[in-house]
Write a sequence for this structure.
């Protein structure tokens, strides 16, 4: 069974204070690892897809990296508007359809 | 702006009643998914629906649940005889590209279901 564990559960940063979120996973035949952002009362909003170890993707202040066991979401010089819950999900080789999500990291960026 | 519209945004129902949650894609797509998120817990897969048939379902998706696309546009999730533990956010999602591809899911903003 595919499993995703995210840490920390919550992270509080000052504006401009860079940090990283971790996503550890076990999956049978990784087909894709996905990062989503979720604001309160909203659906997950797609950020990145990573397919193989060593791959990196960047978007504004966010950078996602992938190894064979974990992924990191690096946040550089965050702003208050980056405050949200960040979700990690994997799609395993056993399914064309199912994503397995972690519980997420609640990020709060104080001005 | 989400690529699927879900209605209603909030549904309150009494235990034992039936509810229908609706999902309307902006453009015509064949692949749809329902997920749910109980407050404070993970987003969980319920069912995938392709070309008017269920493609895969989780152990959560028992006989209490059903999905259909009644008019070729709207995509519905029906929950019969709701229970307190069905209270959750229910998300509809679509998948662009080919069925077997690795393109990401795009989620709607969800329906908050409260069973009292």
């Amino acid at each position: 069974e595919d499993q995703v564990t995210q840490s920390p559960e919550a992270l509080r940063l000052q504006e401009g204070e860079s940090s990283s979120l971790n996503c550890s996973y076990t999956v049978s035949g990784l087909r894709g690892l996905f990062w989503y952002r979720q604001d309160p009362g909203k659906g997950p909003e797609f950020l990145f897809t990573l397919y193989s170890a060593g791959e990196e993707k960047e978007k504004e202040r966010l950078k996602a990296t992938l190894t064979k066991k974990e992924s990191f979401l690096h946040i550089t010089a965050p702003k208050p508007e980056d405050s949200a819950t960040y979700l990690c999900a994997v799609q395993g080789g056993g399914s064309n359809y199912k994503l397995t999500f972690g519980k997420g990291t609640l990020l709060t960026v104080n001005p | 702006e989400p690529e699927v519209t879900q209605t209603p945004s909030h549904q309150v129902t009494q235990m034992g009643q039936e509810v229908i949650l609706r999902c309307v894609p902006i453009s015509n797509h064949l692949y749809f998914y329902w997920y749910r998120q109980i407050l404070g817990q993970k987003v969980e897969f319920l069912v995938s629906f392709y070309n008017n048939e269920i493609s895969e379902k989780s152990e959560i998706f028992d006989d209490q649940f059903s999905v259909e696309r009644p008019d070729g546009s709207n995509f519905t999730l029906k929950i019969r005889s709701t229970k307190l533990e069905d209270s959750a956010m229910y998300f509809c999602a679509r998948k662009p590209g080919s069925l077997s591809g690795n393109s990401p899911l795009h989620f709607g903003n969800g329906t908050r279901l409260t069973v009292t």
